[in-house]
Design a protein that fits this description.
Blueprint (H helix, E strand, L loop, with lengths): L5 E3 L5 H10 L5 E3 L3 E5 L3 E3 L4 E3 L6 E5 L3 E5 L8 E4 L2 E3 L4 E5 L11 E4 L2 E3 L1
Length: 118
């Protein structure tokens, strides 16, 4: 039997969240703690994971880049969730789902309990 793990990011910074995503395996949950951060580079996620913040108004990510999160699955069997964030996209894209001829189709996406501004 297999069991999913919970990977805790050290902070809301893009570098810490990226490190946690790298450490995660398919099916894991990456938990981002309360805090605010400006992401000057995007986060590309290719794994089937859940990315969960500490709640609306508690984990606040502000865009300093054109796209905050790119979901680009590498397998046809995929699941992706983003929950518990406030995203200030600064008139850019907060979350982009890449579903085109170069990527497998995107299935089972859940984007819930977030606030999107700007």
């Amino acid at each position: 039997s297999a069991q999913a793990a919970t990977i805790n990011a050290a902070s809301a910074s893009q570098a810490d969240v990226s490190a946690a995503v790298t450490a995660a395996a398919n099916g894991d949950t990456v938990v981002v703690p309360a805090g605010s951060a400006i992401w000057n580079s995007g986060l590309t996620i290719t794994k089937n994971i859940s990315l969960v913040g500490a709640g609306i108004g508690n984990t606040v990510i502000t865009a300093g880049t054109a796209v905050l999160i790119d979901y680009s699955p590498t397998t046809i069997v995929n699941m992706f969730r983003v929950s518990g964030f406030t995203f200030n996209s600064n008139n850019n894209q907060a979350i982009r789902l890449l579903d085109n001829s170069l990527n497998p189709p995107v299935y089972q996406v859940r984007i819930d309990h977030n606030r999107f501004t700007n």
